[in-house]
């Protein structure tokens, strides 16, 4: 893709407050790419290796993506409370699924919880 187009897409995206649903289809496609099909997504989920680390390090994931749609783009909220408290979240850019969270805790990934259908709450 031409560099001029890349800048145009990113500009639209940031102008709309990083909300993927308010940009054009072309820009959306450019940023989040093609949607993964269910079969490939299940296969990819099955290959994720979770390695536990000593506290307070978060776990290490062999792969990081949205367990609902396979998208790799995410939106990070930043810390939503004031220091020294910590509450931050990361959402899938495409479908809005909660991908990870730190609530005065090490970072927790939705991918760590297949037994809860990848739901953190
Ligand atoms: Zn998603």
How many DSSP H or I helices? 3
Note the beta-strand portion: 15-25%
**Count of the domains:** 2
Order of helices and strands: HHHEEEEEE
What distance separates the N and C termini?
A: 40 Å
**Which residues form runs of ≥5 with pLDDT under 50?**
none
Largest sheet properties: 4 strands, antiparallel
Task: Describe this entry's structure for a reader.
- The chain is an alpha+beta fold and 121 residues long.
- It folds into 2 domains: 1-33, no CATH class; 34-121, no CATH class.
- Helices cover 25% and strands 17% of the residues.
- The protein has helices at residues 3-15, 25-32, 38-46; strands at 50-51, 60-61, 74-76, 87-92, 98-103, 108-109.
- The strands form 2 sheets. Strands 3-4-5-6 form a 4-stranded antiparallel sheet, with no helix packed on it. The chain has a two-stranded antiparallel ribbon with strand order 1-2.
- A hairpin with a 4-residue loop joins strand 5 (98-103) and strand 6.
- Helix 1 (3-15) crosses helix 2.
- The model has no long low-confidence stretch (mean pLDDT 92).
- The protein binds zinc ion.
- Zinc ion (ZN) binds at residues 66, 68-69, 71, 92, 94-95, 97.
């Amino acid at each position: 893709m031409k560099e001029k187009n890349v800048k145009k897409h990113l500009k639209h995206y940031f102008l709309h407050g990083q909300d993927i649903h308010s940009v054009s289809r072309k820009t959306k496609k450019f940023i989040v790419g093609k949607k993964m099909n269910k079969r490939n997504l299940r296969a990819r989920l099955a290959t994720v290796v979770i390695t536990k680390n000593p506290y307070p390090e978060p776990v290490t994931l062999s792969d990081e993506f949205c367990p609902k749609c396979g998208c790799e783009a995410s939106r990070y909220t930043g810390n939503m409370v004031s220091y020294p408290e910590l509450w931050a979240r990361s959402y899938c850019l495409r479908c809005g699924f909660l991908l990870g969270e730190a609530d005065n805790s090490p970072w927790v990934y939705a991918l760590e919880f297949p037994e809860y259908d990848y739901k953190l709450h």
